[in-house]
Amino acid sequence: MLLSELAMKANMTTPKTILITGASGLVGESLCAALVARGHSVRTLSRSDQGDHQWDVAAGQLDSRALDGVDAVIHLSGESVAQRWTDAAKARILDSRVDSTRLLVDSILAQEKRPAYIAASGISYYGIDCEHPVDESSGSGKGFLAGVTCQWEGAAQSLTEASVRTVFLRTGIVLSAKGGALAKMLPPFKLGVGGRIGDGQQKMSWISLPDLVSVYVFAVENVSVQGAVNAVAPEPVTNSMFTKILGRVLGRPTVFPLPASLVKMIFGEMGKETVLSNLGVLPKSLIDLGFEWQHAELETALKQTLS
Ligand SMILES: NC(=O)c1ccc[n+]([C@@H]2O[C@H](COP(=O)([O-])OP(=O)(O)OC[C@H]3O[C@@H](n4cnc5c(N)ncnc54)[C@H](OP(=O)(O)O)[C@@H]3O)[C@@H](O)[C@H]2O)c1
Asked: Staple 28 to which of 23, 82, 280, 305, CB 3.0 to 4.6 Å?
């Protein structure tokens, strides 16, 4: 057998059947492709008829065949956080996550052979302003999003109690040119009118999209992955540093700061809890589990993302 074949064999894992919610989103699309490339069988659960199976969370309905023979459920779906937080938007952001989790949990518990549950969560669990770096052993913080993530994870508590393998991937800022925070920053930066936000001292904890996808695959394939896991790159950076590196990668100046007062005026509470938040998050669990990042440094990640 050739060395390359041996290496491939060593990397292979038993094929699994995986049910994914939110598969049409930024993370879901790339993740489905990666899982299929690893030999897994993927089923999608969606609100629309684009999915293999459908669910209507408000009506408490989930296609009963969706979980048949499934080894793992990956729960990504949820109303976008990137909008002005009216009372109605806040209710959608919370309910779309908590109610859908409850429906999935009940369906998982009803199975004879219960699949593992791997869910998206956010680093906003730790709050808005962390003076020191935090890891998975740190407590939850203050703010609307911190409350959402606590309730989102809490809604799956009965799975842990029933000894179902449960993983919460507390995800940082996902770097992609197709969506999320970076895609929104790109137009002004490309025009050369980008700059730091506020005083630029707030820490940003980020992860490249390929690395986040690998974290999900890692969580599916390794039973030792359990509980809260920070899905971020090893080194958080300040917003000033992020700005400088993004400008360098794009070959553009970054001399137009965006004042915090303007961010608060335009984006309100959402701006305060996202672009102005100060969250230095460390991926202690991933390091302990031996996960290897493809993009551990921001410059490499941005070059790859924007190439
Ligand atoms: N991207 C990031 O930077 C980031 C950072 C931290 C955490 N996360 C979390 O990771 C998960 C995946 O992120 P993403 O960026 O891939 O999300 P996304 O692109 O916004 O996609 C989420 C999916 O959720 C479903 N959805 C949208 N609105 C919904 C609603 N009101 N009720 C129920 N389902 C709804 C949609 O799937 P269907 O139409 O097929 O149902 C959609 O494709 C999300 O829960 C997000 O909060 C993302």
From this structure: 23
Cβ of 138 closer than 6 Å to ligand 1, yes or no, is no
3-state secondary structure 248-277: HHHCCCCCCCECHHHHHHHHCHHHHHCCCC
DSSP labels for 82-110? -S---HHHHHHHHHHHHHHHHHHHHHHHT
Cα of 215 vs centre of ligand 1, distance in Å, is: 17
For 100, the domain range is: 3-174+206-232+281-295
CATH of the domain at 72: 3.40.50.720
Asked if the structure places residue 91 within a domain, the reply is yes
Query: Would residue 80 count as lying in a domain?
Result: yes
Q: Is residue 217 part of a domain?
A: yes
Span from the CA of 89 to the centroid of ligand 1 (angstroms)? 14
CB of 79 closer than 6 A to ligand 1? Answer: yes
Nearest to 210 by CA among 31, 15, 22: 31
Query: How is residue 295 written in tokens?
Result: 């993009």
Please tell me the pTM assigned to this model: 0.96
Structural domain includes residue 193: no
- Cβ–ligand 1 distance for 26 under 6 Å, the answer yes
